[in-house]
Structure formats: C-alpha cells, structure tokens
C-alpha cells in the first residue's frame, strides 16, 4: 500500500510514511465491511469480515491495504463484540477514508514530535494512530460524535500501545479542555469552518478540513493557520477529492432512476461553440457549487453530465466536431447557462484555484479570489449561500 502511494505521488519520505509502514491496519480494523451488492441494488448487501476467521483473513487484508475507503460501522451499531456475517439494508455510518486522501492531508498538516493534536472524527483511528506515532500519544485527542466509535478507537489504539484521550462529543465544537492545539484535523466535510476550532488553534498552529455543500461533486479544502501574533489566515483550495459529509448534511445524489432519464430523446439539444470547462478547472467548479447550488456531476458518464435532482433538471454536453458541442438538457434550470456564467466570472477573476477565506466580525465567512473579482459568502446559519 505504501509503495503504491509513493508511486502515485500521494506519499513522500517523512514521518507520515514511517507511521503508515509501522502501524498494522488489521489491529485498527480487525473487522470491516465488504459490499456484495451492485451499485444501484436495493436493499444493499454487505458482509462483515473478521480477521480472527481464517476464511476472511486474505480478503480482509486485501481490503485494508487496497487504499480505498473501508466501512467499519453499519447503522450506528456497537462496533466492539459484533458477530461477523451478512448485513442487509441500512447505511454505513463510519469508515476509514481512502489512503491517498489521508496521506496527502496528513503530510500537509505536517505533524511533529511533541505537538498537541485534535483529531476530529475518529473513524477507524488511522489518523489518531499516525498522530500518536509522530507526536506522542500524550498530546493527542481523538473526538467523535458516536460513543461506539469512541469506545472502539480507544480499545484498538490501546492494542498498539497508545493511550490518547478518546472522547465523545460534537466535532464542530472541538474539545477545549485539552486545547489549544498545534494541529487540528477534521475527517468529515463541514459547511463552513467551525468557529470553535479556530479558537482552539494555538499560535503557529494549522487546521485542515473539507468544506462542502449538499453536493458531493466539488469539494474545497480549508487550510487555516494562526500566526505567532495570534492573527488567523485561511484559504480555500479547490481539490479533486475531499472527505464525506458529516452530521447535518442532506446529501444530493443522482439515483439510477434519475440517470435513466438522461437520454437525447428525453431532452432538447442545442449546438454551442462554447467549450465546457475542463475537469481540471477545479476553481471554477468549486465556485459553481456555491453560486448555483444543488448540482451533482455524474462522473461515471462518458460525456460531461450534470443534474439537479431536487427539480429534475439535467444537462449533457457531447463534442460534435471542431469547436462545436451538442448540449442536451431537460427541466426548469438552464444548467449550461449557469456553468457558462460562472466560467466567465472565473476567467475574469484570473482562473483561481485557491481562494482567500475571510472570517467576518458578524460570524459569517467569505471566499474571495486573489484579485477580489469573484467572491461568495457562507451563511452564518449554515443553511445556504448569499451571492
């Protein structure tokens, strides 16, 4: 797994690499779920694999070291003392994130020996274990909203010889009792930077978290730093991948039934000389997500396909020749016009991939392009966006 991460460029020499080499993942995740059903099959079917069962061991080790996300909890169940075997229906409620994402973020976080660390969203305990290895367990706090997750992480980190503070509570409120922290790592997406976490950041400290909306398609990475003089500087980076949503998100998705309506005979087609933005224009797509919320990209489609499941609108763009594209759409929203509107504004702003994050006195937060030409505001109530 480490060799693959190095080859892909997600992992470089340093303490995070040494930690991932040293920490046995089967101790942190002696049980994990593997999906047995197809993507759109309902109800979904899983098997809970167990390392203590010889028949499960090879498949579980392959799962743990494959690099993908690993599901560890079904339907909010107690994690300790479970009986392995099949599960049906429901949803997965805790997981270990993909290792490429985790490794990259942990290296950006730059943990160092002796630092105080707040790990928000314990999951399988991988991040907490890395922090204990690098920083020493005495200064590490791992926090999760689910007491079953907290109990499992506490026991499994103990099995590695680590005894950080494993506590239960609202991650967006942090854990002020052990602060301030030199490093804060949030492993789930939030709508805006929680003020409590900014307040618990020590001078010289750094916090990382995914900022997202109800759409899973275009995440942003918030990098927050407190300078030695106590001032706070932050930026929002448009990234390809981010953490999954935390509590309170009503996530949008394109169901199989919705995707089945995205066909030429169910929409209207127009010819356009305007090129669709490239996938790598992530700063544009991030801005689109905030100026025109409610859109979801179908990354499994051959052509650029975007839907708005709340109103039934969709759009598909297919190349039709030299500098010509066929735009097929359906529904009350003109998604193509929305994309082109933001693309024009994004180009006028210098095509930024990184925005400055501002924390205003009234509690609201703003993202602004470096030249100030493109900006949006995150609502203080976390319920929407004012343009």
Nutshell version of this structure?
By secondary structure, the chain is of the alpha+beta class.
Question: Layout of helices and strands, plus pairs?
Answer:
Blueprint: H1 2-8, H2 15-22, H3 25-28, E1 31-35, E2 45-50, H4 54-64, E3 70-74, E4 85-88, E5 92-96, H5 99-109, E6 117-120, H6 126-135, E7 140-144, H7 147-159, E8 165-168, E9 181-186, H8 195-199, E10 201-211, E11 220-226, E12 232-238, H9 256-260, E13 268-272, H10 282-291, E14 296-297, E15 304-308, E16 313-321, E17 324-330, H11 335-348, E18 354-359, E19 365-368, E20 375-378, E21 385-386
Parallel strand pairs: 6-7, 6-9, 7-8, 9-10
Antiparallel strand pairs: 1-2, 2-4, 3-5, 10-11, 11-12, 12-18, 13-17, 14-15, 15-16, 16-17, 18-19, 19-20, 20-21
Helix pairs in contact: 2-6, 10-11
Tell me what you see in this structure.
InterPro entries: PCMT, SAM-dependent_MTases_sf. Belongs to the methyltransferase superfamily. L-isoaspartyl/D-aspartyl protein methyltransferase family. This is Protein-L-isoaspartate O-methyltransferase. Residues 364-387 are annotated as: Disordered. The chain is α+β, with helices and mostly antiparallel strands. The chain folds into three domains: 2-95, no CATH class; 99-238, Vaccinia Virus protein VP39 (Rossmann fold), CATH 3.40.50; 256-348, TATA-Binding Protein (2-Layer Sandwich), CATH 3.30.310. The protein contains eleven helices and 21 strands. The longest helix has 14 residues, at 335-348. The two termini are 43 Å apart.
């Amino acid at each position: 797994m480490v060799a693959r991460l190095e080859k892909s460029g997600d992992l470089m020499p340093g303490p995070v690499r040494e930690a991932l080499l040293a920490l046995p993942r089967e101790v942190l995740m002696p049980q994990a779920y593997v999906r047995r059903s197809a993507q759109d099959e309902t109800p979904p079917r899983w098997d809970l694999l167990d390392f203590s069962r010889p028949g499960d061991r090879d498949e579980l080790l392959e799962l743990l070291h494959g690099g993908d996300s690993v599901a560890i909890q079904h339907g909010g169940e107690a994690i300790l003392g479970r009986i392995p075997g099949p599960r049906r229906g429901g949803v997965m409620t805790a997981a270990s994130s993909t290792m490429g994402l985790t490794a990259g973020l942990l290296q950006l976080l730059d943990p160092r020996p002796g630092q105080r660390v707040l790990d928000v969203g314990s999951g399988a305990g991988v991040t907490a274990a890395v922090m204990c290895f690098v920083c020493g367990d005495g200064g590490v706090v791992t926090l999760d909203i689910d007491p079953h997750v907290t109990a499992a992480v506490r026991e499994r980190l103990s099995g590695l010889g680590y005894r950080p503070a494993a506590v239960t509570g609202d991650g967006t409120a942090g854990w002020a009792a052990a602060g301030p922290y030199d490093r804060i790592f949030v492993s789930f997406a939030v709508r805006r930077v929680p003020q409590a976490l900014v307040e618990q950041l020590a001078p010289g400290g750094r916090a990382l978290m995914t900022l997202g909306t109800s759409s899973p398609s275009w995440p942003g990475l918030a990098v927050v730093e407190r300078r030695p003089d106590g001032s706070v500087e932050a930026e929002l980076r448009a990234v390809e991948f981010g953490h999954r949503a935390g509590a309170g998100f009503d996530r949008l998705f394109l169901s199989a039934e919705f995707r089945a309506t995205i066909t030429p005979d169910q929409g209207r087609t127009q010819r356009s000389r305007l090129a669709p933005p490239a996938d790598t224009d992530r700063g544009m797509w991030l801005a689109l997500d905030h100026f025109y919320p409610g859109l979801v990209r179908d990354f499994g489609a051959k052509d650029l396909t975007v839907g708005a499941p709340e109103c039934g609108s969709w759009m598909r763009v297919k190349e039709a020749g030299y500098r010509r594209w066929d735009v097929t759409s359906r529904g009350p929203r003109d998604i193509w016009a929305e994309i082109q509107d933001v693309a024009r504004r994004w180009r006028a702003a210098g095509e930024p991939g990184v925005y400055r994050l501002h924390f205003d006195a009234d509690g609201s937060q703003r993202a602004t392009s470096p030249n100030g030409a493109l900006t949006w505001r995150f609502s203080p109530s976390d319920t929407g966006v004012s343009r």
